[in-house]
Amino acid sequence: MGRSWATLGVDLHLEPSRAGGLRRGLTDALRDAVRSGRLAPGTRLPSSRSLAADLGIARNTVAEAYADLVAEGWLTARQGSGTRVGDRVVAPPSGTAAAARRAPGRPVHSLVPGTPDLAAFPRAEWLKAARRALATAPFDALDYGDPRGRPELRAALAGYLARARGVRTGPDRVVITAGFSHALGILGRVLRARGVRTVAVESYGLDVHWSLLRDAGCATPALPYDELGTDPGGLGDAGAVLLTPAHQFPMGTPLHPDRRAAVVDWARRTGGLVLEDDYDGEFRYDRQPIGALQGLDPDRVVYLGTASKSLAPGLRLGWMVLPPALVEEVTAAKGRIDTVGALDQLTLAEFLTSGAYDRHVRSSRLRYRRRRDALAAAVTARAPGVQVTGIAAGLHALLRLPPGTEQSVVQAAAWQGLALHGLDYHRHPEAVAEPLDALVVGYGTPPDSAWAGALEALCRVLP
Amino acid sequence: MGRSWATLGVDLHLEPSRAGGLRRGLTDALRDAVRSGRLAPGTRLPSSRSLAADLGIARNTVAEAYADLVAEGWLTARQGSGTRVGDRVVAPPSGTAAAARRAPGRPVHSLVPGTPDLAAFPRAEWLKAARRALATAPFDALDYGDPRGRPELRAALAGYLARARGVRTGPDRVVITAGFSHALGILGRVLRARGVRTVAVESYGLDVHWSLLRDAGCATPALPYDELGTDPGGLGDAGAVLLTPAHQFPMGTPLHPDRRAAVVDWARRTGGLVLEDDYDGEFRYDRQPIGALQGLDPDRVVYLGTASKSLAPGLRLGWMVLPPALVEEVTAAKGRIDTVGALDQLTLAEFLTSGAYDRHVRSSRLRYRRRRDALAAAVTARAPGVQVTGIAAGLHALLRLPPGTEQSVVQAAAWQGLALHGLDYHRHPEAVAEPLDALVVGYGTPPDSAWAGALEALCRVLP
Question: Which residue in B334, B339, B346, B448 has the most chain A C-beta atoms within 10 A of its own C-beta, making it the best mutation to test that interface?
Answer without folding.
Answer: B339
